[in-house]
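pipeline stage [seq->struct] | target=Guanidinium exporter | organism=Arenimonas fontis | residues=104
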Amino acid sequence: MAWVWLLAAGLLEIVWAWGLKASEGFTRPWPIVVTVLGTIASFWCLALALREIPLGTGYAVWVGIGALGTALLGIMLYGEPAAWPRLLCIALIVAGVVGLKFVG
């Protein structure tokens, strides 16, 4: 169950990162609400996951899920570059997260 909490925490990190961008510097109320609630929920899920998962592994996987999802969201929603070097780096993040799942 800890890995499910960790996955939820990572997905919620993507939500609050999107909210941060959509808030346009904390000038739009609903994205601010999404950011605050997403952050609280993400940390809550991370805390539950860290009851069983080692801190280093849990934190790295959480950040990896958030970084991967946020990078892909930026490409899909905001037209950020999808050049092969960037995609290669995203693939390396995925490899690291998968590797930590199997060793941690």
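stage status: PASS
auto-comment: The CA atoms of residues 1 and 104 lie 14 Å apart. The mean pLDDT is 94.
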